[in-house]
Amino acid sequence: MSILGTRVLRTEDPGFLTTGGVYTDDVVDDRLDGAGHVFFVRSPIAHARIRSVDVSAALEAPGVIAAFTGDDLADLPPLAPPMPDMVDGRMAQPLLARDVVRYVGEPVAVVVTEDPYQGEDAAELVDADYDPLPAVVDPADAADGSRGLLFPEAGTNVTVTFGDAAALRPDLFDGCEVVVSRTIVNQRVAPAPMETRAAAAAWGEDGRLTAWIPNQGAQDTRGALAEMLAIDSSSLRIITPDVGGAFGAKFGADPEHAVVCWVARQLRRPARWAETRNENLIGMTHGRAQRQVITIGGRRDGTVTAYRLEILQDSGAYPRFGAFLPMLTILMAPGPYAISRAEAVARSVVTNTTPVGAYRGAGRPEATAAIERAMDLFAAEIGQDPGEVRRKNLLPRFSEPHRTAFGALYDSGDYVAALDAALGAAGYSGLREEQVKRRAAGDVIQLGIGLASYVEITGAGAEAGGPRENASVEVHPDGSATILTGTSPHGQGHATVWAMLASEELGIPVDRITVKWGDTDLIPEGGGTGGSRSLQQGGVAVQQASRELLGMARERAAAVLEANPADLVFEPERSAFEVAGDPEAAVPLATLAAAERLVVRTVFIAPGATFPFGAHVAVVEVDTETGKAVLRRVVTVDDAGTVINPLLAEGQRHGGIAQGAAQAFLEEVIYDADGNPLTASFADYPFLSATEVPSFELADMATPTSYNPLGVKGIGEAGTIGATPAVQNAIIDAVAHLGVRHVDMPASPQRVWQAIQEAAAGKDA
Amino acid sequence: MIPAPFEYEAAESAAHALDLLARHGEDAKLMAGGHSLLPMMKLRLAVPAVVIDIGRVGELAGIRADGDDLVIGATTCHADVAASALVQSQTPLLAYAAAQVGDPQIRHRGTIGGSLAHADPAADLPMALVALGGVVEISGPGGTRTVGADDFFAGFFETSLEPDELLTAVRVPRCPGPDWGYQKFVRRANDWAIVGVAAAGHRIALANMGPVPVRARAAERALAEGASVADAAGLAAEGTDPAEDIHADRAYRQHLARVLTRRALEHQTG
Amino acid sequence: MQIELTVNGAPRSDDVEPRLLLVHYLRQRCGLRAANVGCDTTSCGACTVLVNGRSVKSCTMLAVQAAGQEITTAEGLAAGGEMHPVQQAFRQEHGLQCGFCTPGMVMAAAGLLAENPHPTEAEVREGLEGNFCRCTGYHNIVRAVLAAAESMSA
Fold first, then answer.
1. ipTM, interface predicted TM-score of the complex
2. Cis peptide leading into B126, omega within 30 of 0?
3. Which of A76, A714, B5, C131 has its CA 20 to 30 A from that of A343?
4. In this model, does residue A764 exceed pLDDT 90?
């Protein structure tokens, strides 16, 4: 019986559960003996000219080894933005601020101490003097330059534009019987992995740097770090310890990581750093942060014929991945719908806020939130059921790739089936009946039902020739095996699933297969883990390597057994080749490995990205007197092709649903008008707890893709893509009969209550 | 984040704690469970030179009945107050309030005296004490005194405790029976109240509707004059001056106070 | 100053700075690194340990306050190499992903079940309100605690 598709328990769990994982701050290593502890001094002001940074008093404090400012690092290049050709290079972030600080939390100096406790004491003695400049916080102000420029030399706050706003068709909505338009907010949120950022760095006698950094791909981190340190990648070894969550925000490297490595080189002693949660909430990149204008038009029979999405992307103070999120949002703008006329444009701007980067979904949740809100606005306008309107406009089932107007090539899809399965599992008609009753009775607690259909893109690589990943599989003389992978798990369970994939081919038990990742000397190439790429490229590469290894072993076994390779059969239960019809004539893989190393490295190249899809149904209760929404149910269909380990795939969905729901009603990074962060601790940033969500109801659907032999697509981000609009739509639906058409996220009690008041007063809400 | 350096003294008795307070003066801070003070010290909003630990002083902990009152030692933790059969049966509002503080771990360490002395206007126990009309017992160099709840809270995170004084116990009247209600409006279970309302009979206390926990006196008066619960609750925000923050503006807080007061007077909890 | 206490059943005596937080004492002095620091505000519970059998956030307790007390960490929960029923249930139900919140979550769950051996789902959720997890959406954590309750009473 195949091990694939079964609920294999994770091999990595016993350690996590008993001694705990070994995260960067837990690493004990001879090379780090005597490490100095780095503590960052950060700007307390959103926008200012730095007059001076005086570290002399700090240098006198107990335990202080050294202190450095931006001037000390002036020779080092700044953090280059992704796709540097598309943005003004003068907008790059220096490793430590020199002349100007551009967000609260921007590093301006470091102190290095013998003991970690001494750093915070000494940092208080660093005297930084600032001349405040007007803070540009609202992206609309940034776009029109009315509050000034972050980079006057660039002459604009606009970092990058996508599409030509001047070329938008004035006639796009001509002929529509109904047109609805609305400005909506996809608010800024904090990725907030439970493990904050950290680094440990040691330079060897040979002049090479070894750096332990929590990341999503050691090879990518190596490249980013080498660039900032102006050294060759070959002089740098990245080791990835256990990583306590990342959610897109631990890709590459941040200026702080480079500073820690630089400090270690400067002081000729190892250095390490572990940030506080306060630093994490202002220093780690944020996510989302789009303002969108959605316009949707069509016929009163429910047919949508035209859709326009205009995006204003807040990049934060320096253009990082966030500036480019609109690329993915535009690509996925029409979602799973057949809309004959659609267009989308975007501008990204810098503001005096924490830089924006990737956060679980990265650009696609923003696309889904926009079109799903638009669908509900359209349905409300024509007085039709939102499920019906969706069904009418979804692309019909297709098995040959479908090219959209925005250039996306959807590999396979059955969106109507997904929607119907979700509605069926939720008991949709019964819910609507219950809603009618409560409305008729005028209950204080009203029921809301929200839908979201989605299609997303996973495994989109930038490599020419197709997205790819490598894997090595080696069978050892003792019958065990080792897998090297270019992916980089941080909770996803690759150690278990990659072992399942090799076990399936090689007949070696999962618990005898070791999976290694995240050491760039051992695995020089790899794309890491992000964008839901790992299984469909890295996992498939493991399967491919295992098969290639068997092919090689077959030749060797044939030589040993003096048989024709074609006459051999592989017996997984013995992990051995035997001559067909003569089980006595057999040679195990282990024996072959004892004679000669039995190892294969391979690269799997995918024909392209895959497009998982699904539908979510959320049920909420809203207290119409207070505006508070309580999430009662989330029912989802998430079709990501073949499922290799349902236990882990479900875990990915659960986590994503919770994060997605949290964005809809709870989470938001908030700044005041001067750019001061108001959500810089877990006491203020409303991180979801177990009491705000129910258990989730998952329905199964699996449409394999033809893009890889496993038939798998990505599942990591489905939850944040589908759940956010489903929950938001549900909250609005609960008060729709009171005249409410829209509530921005997070749909906080005050926002919902105000929307009810405004609707009652006859204002358009 | 870690506290600035300090000296540590472990008090062996209430009298010893008072001696230590007298010796170290205003540089010293008392700590029992540390769940109000330590977070402030980690943020360096509190930088005491000396911390006097009263967490091991047995005479300051415990729950007993005394005539018409319950007396709860200052260092009794929230979990013990919440789980006390005596408190549950005699003053159920207080047991309920104690069970709403923070989360289980916080309730295992945080103490009733510490919470009251911290005087967070959004916190559960100050509001409960005001609703119940309880008093705090205070020892100082000049002897002991008692202060009523309405007078104890002097301002935003301020009480009438002098720096050389020790809050030793809390005394609340026995109010058995169902004539109470408690409403804590939060977005997450473990948050501080955006607005809180505790009603004990016709006494109504509001949390986070001003710099201190306040009585809804207009509503109380209306009830005394025979007004309906709904009409009285409509007056709950009279005279309040709530702050604005990321969760609620002034008008919304006042609206919540009215809605939640009605629910509390209807003996609802939530 | 000198403190004497019991950590995972073994008596210890150490000289500590008064401001040393219990979590750092455990991590740096005892080499017990299962408990993690996930926030600074007594919010996230990643540092949860048992003090005299009750769950406590060790980032909000001084090591000197632990003098004379019995501390149990996730390392001490597994007796004789056998995982505690709560730990087993977390594995069985896939109640962990990145693992960072896990030791604290396990200790909070163990503390919860010691006080309430037969909790409902709602009671489990409320009992874990002081422990944040970013990966699991709490779904499988709740299942794990309910499963542990069942196996411990069987």
1. 0.98
2. no
3. A714
4. no
